[in-house]
Amino acid sequence: MKVTPKVRGFICTTAHPTGCEAAVRKQIDYVKTQPKTEGPKKVLVIGSSMGYGLASRIAAAYSCGAATIGVMFDRPASGNKTATSGWYNTKAFEKFAVEDGLYAKTINGDAYSDECKKEVIELIKSDLGKVDMVVYSLAAPRRAVGDTVYSSVLKTTGESYTNKTIDLRNNCVSEITIEPATEEEITATVKVMGGEDWEAWIDALKAADAIEDGAVTVAYSYIGPKLTHPMYFEGSIGRAKAHLYETAKKITKDGIKAYISVNKALVTQSSAAIPIVPLYISILYKVMKAKGNHEGCIEQMYRLFNQKLYGESVQTDENGMIRLDDLEMQKDVQDEVTELWNTLSQDNLKECADLDGYWEDFYALFGFGIEGVDYESDVDV
Ligand code: NAD
User: Fold this and answer.
1) Pair 352, 7: CB distance under 8 Å
2) Does the structure show a pLDDT above 90 at 10?
3) pTM over 0.85
4) Which residue in 232, 285, 302, 310 is the catalytic one?
5) Strand ranges in the chain using DSSP code E only, listed in sequence order
């Protein structure tokens, strides 16, 4: 059938198989042009089908020559419904990896569950013995623990916060007030996006003797500029990220080197859902593209492996965090972003923000608008 994008607000309910494959190919090709990394050889990536997790997997495989096991939560096609883009990305990655002589297998299941952990550990034991790196890149709206389902919220803590935002349904700039989360909502957000499950994975791997003593594990976070702080860094998601940070210290104390990598704000399925952030990202793209220092997920993750984690020594800031947001947070970048943010309105939206770039990246997440793909032809979904 012919597959076209069906966008509902910040979600696209269709994905293009050939487009996703071409987008994965592009990321692989990028890494192939870069110098190799003396890095890990057996990598588990939890949250491996999209965004930063997929890019981590590609960087590990193609820069370090690593065997990779991925964990994702994606839907295959059924009837005339396409699969999710994560499902197509993963099929494509596995196909290319195998063609290139690299081990790649994926478990499709709920990473939070004990069953999934068990299944993954059995696979590691039978195929790889032990892993020497674990990437934790889950971004999920909810987590089931027994009969209780915790839902994460994207709200402030303490006071409400009003600022500009963009309505992605009609590209209209408006003002939004984000209400504070209740204590219960904050606790739930920490349950979903904090470090508890990361620690559970490491504990399970250790208990099964499926992780090397000198292994490294990394989870991803975001800090960003002041204008997004009430909503992100100091918001309910920020509380979860603070928990993730504390968890890194705990995992390290217990013997496996755990790092938090603070990554750049980029268009992914998850970040599109956060109020204010898509508008900030559009302005950031404008500024960084003009300066020539814009990066996407793959450039960020290649730099994580090649320079920050497996270069001469691990590069962290004074708090022990890896800063891949170094270019985003440069003073000249942020000064220009602030100026544009303050002057931006509906009338000058195009001059102040790279909204086209935002949408280009958004469609690309679902395999649309990729160069060289014939979208007029029927595809087997
Ligand atoms: P994403 O939505 O692109 O990918 C999320 C991945 O998690 C997918 O592979 C999905 O299949 C998987 N997943 C979700 N629920 C799952 C479950 N229950 N079981 C197994 N797999 C599951 O997200 P992303 O933006 O790449 O985010 C990854 C991490 O990076 C998050 O911790 C996020 O906070 C962080 N981060 C993102 C940004 C950004 O701007 N996008 C910036 C800095 C840090």
Assistant:
1) no
2) no
3) yes
4) 232
5) 7-8, 11-12, 42-46, 67-72, 104-108, 131-136, 142-145, 148-151, 161-167, 172-178, 211-221, 257-262, 322-323
